[in-house]
TrEMBL record:
Keywords: Membrane, Transmembrane, Transmembrane helix. This is Uncharacterized protein. It comes from Granulicella mallensis (strain ATCC BAA-1857 / DSM 23137 / MP5ACTX8). The chain crosses the membrane at residues 80-104, 124-140, 160-178, 190-212.
Length: 285
């Protein structure tokens, strides 16, 4: 099918399409280019006899063309990063950075900040192993099944991701507790120290529990957040059949079956890896 136009577009429109086309994802670039090429050609020939309106129409259309190209690019980034481990760690790091900047602003300088963080940091280093022990001891093991850990490389990647996530959560809890208690240090230093220890412990416990829960809701291979939850079974048949939720990896790596209740025959979740040949079979059918 030919996409040639009856007459060429003006030079400005051709340059604009060529420049903004580079911002469009490669998979959608050709269709986007031909669509906007036809739209611009139609506008030019429709407003040929109305020169007074041609300029305003072309300005509006050029703005729309630019917004459309940028939206396609940002949407491709959103689809590529949505639910990924990279996005999770980046957001946690950004929150830590914002908290550190807030601490710097409250302290008034780097030297004052180092003095204000010296004692709380030593207390936090003593507090962290205790908080981690309590969290690991009370965390649910329903999402940890030895037979579902997969290959060694995937297991190592999951552990490294969890370690980085837990480290950032602990750092964020320390910085947030410091920011909250910073105004109390001058009038009530002892109260501020006690409050800082209590607040950091509470935030650390909540954050580490979230880290455990988030880890159990991710794919064993790509570490993306699992989606499309589906209810399977009936709660009244817990003793007779499986009952719970199933989550699927959007990349097609597998499915996670989470039981609604722990029973003697089903205590943990089960990760079901998709057969590598399933995609080929589905494509043929």
């Amino acid at each position: 099918m030919s996409h040639s136009l009856p007459s060429p577009l003006p030079l400005f429109d051709r340059i604009l399409l060529r420049i903004l086309g580079k911002a469009v994802p490669a998979a959608e670039r050709e269709e986007w280019f031909h669509t906007w090429q036809a739209e611009l050609w139609h506008i030019h020939h429709r407003t040929r006899s109305r020169r007074s309106q041609a300029l305003s129409v072309m300005v509006d259309l050029s703005i729309g063309l630019m917004r459309d190209a940028l939206w396609l690019r940002t949407d491709s980034w959103r689809r590529a990063l949505s639910g990924t481990a990279t996005l999770c760690l980046s957001l946690l790091f950004a929150l830590c950075l914002l908290s550190a900047l807030a601490s710097l602003a409250l302290s008034g300088g780097w030297h004052a900040l180092s003095l204000n963080l010296s004692n709380p940091s030593r207390r936090f280093l003593i507090e962290t192993p205790l908080v981690a022990f309590v969290t690991f001891a009370t965390a649910s093991r329903r999402h940890v099944k030895p037979s579902a850990t997969g290959k060694t490389m995937y297991w190592i990647k999951r552990q490294l991701f969890f370690a980085a996530k837990a480290t950032l959560v602990l750092a964020l809890s320390f910085l947030l507790s410091t920011d909250i208690c910073q105004p109390l240090h001058a009038p009530l230093p002892i109260t501020a120290d006690l409050a800082q220890v209590l607040i950091s412990a509470c935030i650390s416990l909540v954050g580490l529990r979230w880290a455990f829960h988030d880890q159990g809701q991710r794919c064993n291979q790509c570490l993306r957040v699992l989606s499309t939850p589906a209810r399977v079974g009936r709660p009244s048949h817990n003793l007779l059949e499986w009952n719970g939720n199933e989550l699927v990896c959007r990349q097609g790596h597998g499915m996670l079956s989470i039981p609604e209740m722990e029973t003697s025959w089903c205590r943990s979740s089960e990760w079901i890896t998709q057969n590598p040949g399933w995609d080929r079979v589905a494509g043929v059918s």
